[in-house]
Automatic annotation (TrEMBL):
Record-annotated Potassium channel domain positions: 60-130
Any one Gene Ontology BP term: monoatomic ion transmembrane transport
SUPFAM superfamilies per UniProt: Voltage-gated potassium channels (SSF81324)
Domain of life assignment: Bacteria
Protein's name according to its UniProt entry: Two pore domain potassium channel family protein
Membrane-traversing stretches: 6-27, 48-70, 107-128
Keywords from the named record: Ion channel, Ion transport, Membrane, Transmembrane, Transmembrane helix, Transport
Pfam family, any one: Ion_trans_2
Length: 147
């Protein structure tokens, strides 16, 4: 069981690093449009939001794939397609139960579920902050916007 917990924690840290990199990259790319966002039309704001959402979906898919690779390499699941499916429903905490891991690896899937909740929460917090910037009287640097 110790091997499985250590492996799961290593994957968890890997996905946190991936997500942190995605957050920094998306913010860096979107910083310019966010700074002048009060001047942008609604459709431009929607386009920027779609950019962020697609970026985060890609990050989540990569994180799901990392978990799937581990399940496949450990021999827990017979095919990569099944490993990706299992990882996706576990990461998203859907958990249909039609595919399960062996008793010795079940704890790893529980850790993946916690991992997914945290990373989806991080994504939500970022998107909320973006919308807060757009609809507040402060700009992206926290300074009062001039009317």
């Amino acid at each position: 069981m110790l091997l499985q917990v250590i492996t799961a924690i290593a994957v968890l840290l890997t996905t946190i690093f991936i997500h942190g990199t995605a957050v920094m990259l998306l913010f860096h790319i979107g910083r310019g449009p966010l700074t002048g966002s009060r001047k942008l039309a609604g459709y431009a704001r929607l386009g920027i939001t779609c950019f962020f959402v697609v970026g985060f979906v890609i990050a989540h898919l990569i994180e799901i794939m990392v978990w799937a690779v581990v399940y496949r390499l450990t021999g827990e699941l017979p095919s990569f397609e099944e490993a990706v499916y299992f990882s996706a429903i576990t990461f998203a905490t859907i958990g249909y139960g039609d595919i399960t891991l062996s008793p010795e690896w079940r704890l790893a899937s529980a850790i993946e579920g916690v991992n997914g909740i945290l990373l989806f929460g991080w994504t939500t917090a970022f998107l909320f902050k973006v919308s807060e910037i757009w609809f507040s009287r402060r700009d992206a640097h926290g300074e009062n916007a001039r009317s």
